[in-house]
C-alpha cells in the first residue's frame, strides 16, 4: 500500500497537478501585462466608471502642467469610432533619451509603470498623478494610442498598439507651438460593456476641474458625429475648424464659485459664502461653504485636484474644526444655553454645502483610484487654517453667524425630536408584537442573499403579486397611494407616515444614526410600479427616500426597478410579451402579422372568455387568426400567472439595477425634481421633455 501511494504522489507531481508549487509556478508579467491581466487594480472597474477613468488619467497629466504654471489651456475631444483626444499647451512630454531606460522619455512614460515626473518635486511641486501609472495604464488598456509632442521647434510622434510602441519616437515636422496631444482608443476586449462615452459625465467632471484650477481654460468637444480626424499639426481641435458641439469653462472665483454653482437651486441660509485660501506647513488649504435651507449635507473633497469620493484626512480635519468652532460661537453668543448639550458633528453638517481642497507635495491616497486621502498632515493643516478663518468669519459677519448658528440649533432640536419619534415607533412595535407590518406578505427563507421584496403600487397589484409569487423567496409589500416626499422631511415626520414606517420596518436596517446595512432582510429590493405617470411619480418618491436615507442600500447594488411588459400579443395559440413599442413591432413581424390583422384591447377588454382570435383559430375553415394586442396599464391588470411569467420569474424577468454613477449630479437632480425651486424644476422638465417616454 505504501509503495502504491508513493507512486501516485510522484505521478501527480509529474503531471503538474493542482497543489504542486515550485519555481516553475511563478508567473512573471512583463511591461504592462499586469495592467491587462488585472485592470480593476488600476482603474477600479472595467465598466463605464473605469472607461471614463481613462480620460481622467490623461486629463490629470495636463491639469498637473497647469498647476505647475506651465499650461493655461486644455482641450478634451471625443472623436469618431471611440477615440479620445486630450491636448494641452504645456511644456510637452520630454522626448530625449532617458539615461536609465536608454529609450525616449516619452516611450518610458507611456510603456513603463511607475515612470513619470511626479516623483520629483522639482518637476511638479503638486500633482494628482502620484503613482506615475496614469498614461501607461491608459496605453495598456487601449487598442491603439498615439502621442504628439510639440517641443523645441519640432513635432514628435510615437504610436502604440495594446501598450507597445509600433516604432521609436520620431520627429515628423517643424512646429512653433509647445504642448502634448494624447489620442487613445480603448480596447473593447477589456471594456466588454462597450465604448460609450457619457457626454454629461465628462462635461460635469471638467467643469468641476475648471473651478479647482483658477485661471485655466478647459474645453470639451463632441466631434463623434463629424467625421473629423485627429489633426496633429495644431495643438487644439478648435484651430482645425471643427464644427461640433462644445463647452468651455474658465473661472477666477475658485471654490467660492463652485459652492455658488452647487447652491444654484437652493435657498441660502446666509448671504456671504465663506472662503479661505491659505498655506500652512507646505499644505495649501482652500475651503468654501454656505448653509442652505435643507437637511442634507453636501461635502465635496479634493486632494491635488483629484476628487475623493470617500473623503479622508482633510474631511476629518474640516468636520472637527467646524463642530468645535460652532460650539464655541454658540456658547459665546448665548445661542446655546447652559442647560443645552453641545452641537454634534451631524448637527453642524445639516444643510451645509462645503468644498475642501488641499494641495501637498508628498501625497498619500488609499488605493490607486484615489478615492480617499490618507496624508495625516492634511488633517492638522485643514483643522487649523479652516478653524481660524471660520471663527473670524463668524465674528466679522454677525448676521451670517447668527443665521448659521440658528440653523444648527434647529438641527439639534430636530435630532432630539426625531430620536424620540423613532424610539417611540420601535418601542410601540415591540409592545404590540408588530415585528413586521401586517400588509407585508413575507417570504419563507431567512437568508437575505436568497430573499427579495417587491414594493408594489396598490392593493390590486399586491393581490396579484401575492398569488403569483414564489412564496419561498419573494416577499410583497403593497403601498397605498403616493408616499411622502422626503426631500425636505425630517425623520420624525417621515416615521409618522404609515407607508414609510412599514417599508422601514420591512427592510430591517432601521434608519438614521442606527442604520445598519448588515441587518438588511432582502438583497433584492424591487420597485414595481405601473407604466404611467402616477407609477413614475411613485417610483421617484421611493428612490428619493432610498437615496436620502438608505444610500448604502443603493451603493451596495440591492435596489432594482421591475420591467413589466407593456403588451401581450397573441395569435392563435402563440403568445408573446413586448416591453416596448419597438419590441412590439419586432414580435408582430416575427408572427407575420399585417396591420389589418391586428385587434387591440386593454386588459379589461381582454379578460374573461376566450379571445376572439382563439375562437377563430378553433374553426376548421377560419381564416388566419387576427393578432390580439392587449395593452397593460398596470400590474393589477395582470392575472397572477401573467405577472409571474413576465415580471417575477427570475428565469424570464427583466430587472434594472439602480446605480449612482455620479453622486453629485444625482444630488443636483433630486434637488431640482423634489425640492422647492419650482422655476428650476419647470426648466428641467421642459429641457428634458423630449427624452421622456410616458404613457399618460
Structural overview:
The chain has 696 residues and is of the alpha+beta class. The chain folds into four domains: 34-249, Histidine kinase-like ATPase, C-terminal domain (Heat Shock Protein 90); 255-416, Ribosomal Protein S5, domain 2 (2-Layer Sandwich); 434-563 and 658-670, Rossmann fold (3-Layer(aba) Sandwich), CATH 3.40.50; 567-631, no CATH class. 38% of the residues lie in helices and 19% in strands. Helix 9 (313-332) runs parallel beside helix 11 (376-396). The N and C termini lie far apart (80 Å).
Mean pLDDT: 83
CATH topology of the largest domain, by name, is Heat Shock Protein 90
Which residue ranges are poorly predicted, with pLDDT under 50 across at least 5 consecutive positions? Answer: 1-18, 21-29, 117-123, 429-434, 605-619
CATH superfamily of the largest domain: Histidine kinase-like ATPase, C-terminal domain
The helix content is 25-40%
Quaternary state of this entry equals: single chain
Distance between the termini: 80 Å
Number of discrete domains: 4
Largest sheet properties: 9 strands, mixed
The number of E-state strands comes to 23
Class of secondary structure makeup = alpha+beta
**Gyration radius over CA:** 30 Å
Number of helices: 23
Can you tell me the CATH class of the largest domain?
Alpha Beta
- Bin the strand percentage: 15-25%
**Envelope shape:** globular
Assigned CATH architecture of the largest domain: 2-Layer Sandwich
